[in-house]
Design brief:
With about 150 residues, the protein is of the alpha+beta class. Helix content is about 40%, strand content about 45%.
Length: about 150
């Protein structure tokens, strides 16, 4: 009898866990998913174009931007480095991108980030992993956090 009770409680608590997770996670509408992917694409293109206005418009004031080297930048430092820094993006691409929604205003994006650039005038190719967190503000998705990691 004790084994039946243990099995019942185990299944009951597993069911509660699944129910709790499914009620707090938001799968995102197709529109949300397309908007998030579009923001990532726009950010990547703005890095290539050194487009200061787009970089500012698509990032939150609280931005924390982590590089695979461990260097952290706030919004001001990130925009300054892209627009005026020694590292000049010539092309970017993403591979294996996934988008996960938590709640109705948070998206987590993971992908492999492929970069071709000039670093102090010398050509470089970089392949790193990225995790990015976007928040919805006034119906617009904006980058809140980004952390790159070495592959």
């Amino acid at each position: 009898m004790q084994k039946r009770a243990q099995a019942f409680y185990f299944l009951f608590f597993c069911g509660l866990t699944v129910f709790a997770q499914s009620s707090t996670n938001f799968k995102g509408t197709d529109t949300d998913r397309k908007q998030v992917v579009s923001v990532i694409e726009q950010l990547n293109q703005a890095m290539v174009d050194r487009d200061e206005d787009t970089l500012r418009n698509l990032t939150m004031k609280e931005l924390t931007y982590g590089h695979s080297s461990g260097n952290l930048e706030d919004k001001k430092a990130f925009v300054e480095a892209v627009v005026h820094g020694d590292f000049d993006f010539t092309s970017t691409a993403t591979e294996n991108q996934t988008v996960f929604f938590s709640g109705d205003d948070t998206a987590v994006v993971r992908h492999i980030f492929l970069i071709e650039a000039l670093s102090k005038g010398l050509p470089v190719q970089i392949r790193i992993g990225n995790m990015m967190v976007l928040k919805k503000q006034k119906k617009q998705w904006k980058l809140l956090a980004r952390q790159a990691y070495k592959l």
